[in-house]
Design a protein that fits this description.
With about 290 residues, the chain is α+β, with helices and mostly antiparallel strands. The chain has nine helices and 13 strands. It folds into two domains: about 90 residues, DNA Primase, Chain A (Alpha-Beta Complex); about 130 residues, no CATH class. The strands form three sheets. Strands 1-2-3-4-5 form a five-stranded antiparallel sheet. It is globular, with a radius of gyration of 19 Å. This is DNA primase.
Length: about 290
């Protein structure tokens, strides 16, 4: 690839391979007509985010919109969010690698010498921190009712509750966002910095998950990160799980262990262990994605 190739050229080449791109980076999604639908930029299951596979009606292939958050862009933007990249350079290396044009693997992810996040990432992370800070402790709330209904008593400071979180119901929902109660779970990097917030929308009438499309959603960056629960004692073992509820169920039975929930099977495989961990126990979900993680 010549040095003069622009980001726009890379974006156009990715758009020409939009379906292959989606199948590689968003395997939890599914094809619906001319769109690939997935839960959010992290690759979670759902249909809130739609990626156009072929140009249509004057609209470009590879363009996407997350109808839950209002975010949109091209496949370079989407790849940046999917990877949780801190610099554009990392994203462009990955794009070139996908296109078969990279002369060497993607740049190392040295968490100690990273450049500062770009403006878009910083803004999104700031939103997640603001949302989580607005929550309150879960004890005595609908969130506690939900977790206790799952037999979970292992809680922690990574969990909060908010009674009125913005909510869109699906890709065809043109109405202004509603508000609904939600369990909030803080996603952090190995230094303890917040990078994202998982939202579990709840139904006050049942105490369970809300009966909506994709009641579990993620805002911010998940790549390599996790929702963490510490036992209070320094240990060299760590239980790393997929879904939050399954991870906490294991933690309820084994309260002496530290926990990390990666939320999806894809991100379980991308998890970056913290320093000092000598042994990792995998608590996978009992489904096909979990078995393949």
């Amino acid at each position: 690839m010549s040095a003069g190739r622009s980001i726009a050229d890379l974006s156009a080449d990715l758009a020409d391979r939009a379906e292959s791109f989606c199948r590689q980076y968003f395997p939890e999604g599914r094809k619906q007509g001319n769109y690939w639908q997935v839960g959010d930029t992290s690759g979670a299951k759902g249909q809130s985010l739609a990626i156009r596979l072929q140009a249509q009606g004057g609209r470009k292939a590879g363009s996407w919109t997350d109808y839950a958050t209002g975010e949109y862009g091209d496949l370079i933007d989407l790849l940046h969010e999917r990877l949780g990249s801190i610099t554009l350079k990392e994203t462009l290396w990955e794009a070139r690698s996908f296109l078969g044009e990279a002369p060497c693997p993607a740049v190392p992810r040295d968490t100690q010498t990273r450049e500062q996040p770009d403006a878009a990432s910083s803004k999104r992370i700031a939103r997640t921190r603001k949302l989580f800070a607005a929550g309150k402790p879960v004890l005595g709330t609908l969130a506690a009712t939900y977790l206790q209904g799952r037999g979970i008593t292992r809680l922690g400071s990574a969990l909060r509750y908010h009674p009125r979180v913005f909510l869109r119901h699906g890709t065809d929902d043109a109405d202004p966002p509603q508000r609904a109660p939600a369990l909030l779970a803080k996603i952090t990097d190995i230094r303890g910095q917040i990078t994202g917030c998982a939202r579990f929308y709840l139904d006050p009438s049942t105490g369970g998950l809300a009966g909506i499309e994709s009641p579990k959603r993620i805002l911010g960056q998940l790549h390599g990160h996790a929702i963490r629960f510490w036992s209070g004692t320094g240990r060299s073992d760590l239980i790393v799980g997929e879904g939050l509820e399954n991870t906490l169920s294991v933690g309820t039975a084994l309260p002496e262990f530290d926990l990390a929930s990666c939320l999806t099977a894809t991100h379980l495989g991308l998890f970056i262990p913290p320093p000092g961990i000598k042994r990792i126990w995998i608590a996978r979900d009992n489904d096909e994605a979990g078995r393949n993680a």
